[in-house]
Amino acid sequence: MEKIAENRCFGGRQLRYQHRSEVLDCDMNFSVFLPPQVEQGNVPVLYWLSGLTCTDENFVTKAGAQRYAAEYGIAIVAPDTSPRGESVPDDPEGAWDFGLGAGFYVNATEQPWARHYRMYDYVVTELPSLVAAELPLEASRMAISGHSMGGHGALTIALKNPGRFKSVSAFSPICSPLACPWGEKALGPYLGSDRDAWAAHDSCALMRASEDKLPALVDQGDADNFLVEQLKPELLQQAASETGYPLELRMQPGYDHSYFFIASFIGEHIAFHASHL
Q1: Which residues are catalytic?
Q2: H/E/C letters for each residue in 242-270?
Q3: pTM above threshold 0.90
Q4: Is 42 helix (H, G, I), strand (E, B) or coil?
Q5: The domain 2-274: what is its CATH number?
């Protein structure tokens, strides 16, 4: 992997890398914050998954997470939200909520998406192996978080990989792709018409089937324009209540879907993960 940017930040280093992804069959960028504690040895890591239209840079430039990551000695790894490049197909109509910037953290099985759109394998396998080999990270101490589509990704990846992560959190996650327009629009083209295949990437369905009880924190603004139609946190709360899952769902009065919301509570999320790492 090649370092393409570096900035000093809260005593640590904000880095950006490019590498060739074999899983996605394209060049990919990702961002990493290394806290000052790496000077004493390896540190635990928080994976951050961003939402629709974002790249790896949105979170690291807008959320203000580095201050808290430096305080608790946690690295942050932020991948892109989809494969990129001239050979990578996009929505034929140029929609913002499908195709480029909208990989939904699944492995596509349908054409023309299957060759490149394998973000699940990229986030679960390829990227962690790469950074563990190249950076001072403790692979046995990982947490995962995300926003919107990335919140969906964080929850589903944590639920599908018991024992892999110490904790999971999300801001404004798409809680049930089976039950919202964004899910219908993405999972049909990526995975085909079999809704059982979709259920394997639905947080509510996965939570009901999970035997692993991973500490989970979700924040949702009650002024979010997407709350009722797309996000549906009440479905996740219902699944947690039915199964005794240790979910803390906090409705935050007056907050919307933006990075202003994330920046307001990211410190509490990093403290939450620090208590489990």
Answers
A1: 148, 224, 257
A2: HHCCCEEEEEECCCCCCHHHHHHHHHHHH
A3: yes
A4: coil
A5: 3.40.50.1820
